[in-house]
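ARCHIVE ENTRY
Sequence with per-residue tokens
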Amino acid sequence: MKLKIKTFGITRDILGGRLVEIEISQPTVSLLRSELTRRYPDLENLNSLFVAVNNKYADESEELSSTDEIALIPPVSGG
């Protein structure tokens, strides 16, 4: 299944664009994370990374569909 993933902040730099498409056979948040880390090892350097599905933070076991709006939410910094 092909998924479209929106990126923000440092994840945009690591993945190389605002929107990334990835294909995985059994789409869950956990498997998506694993596949993204395999393809983009620098993601492992982030001290936190949330996955949002349809504007809500997602559990690792949540199943994904090709119509979901998926976003990677990196750590927020500031002062």
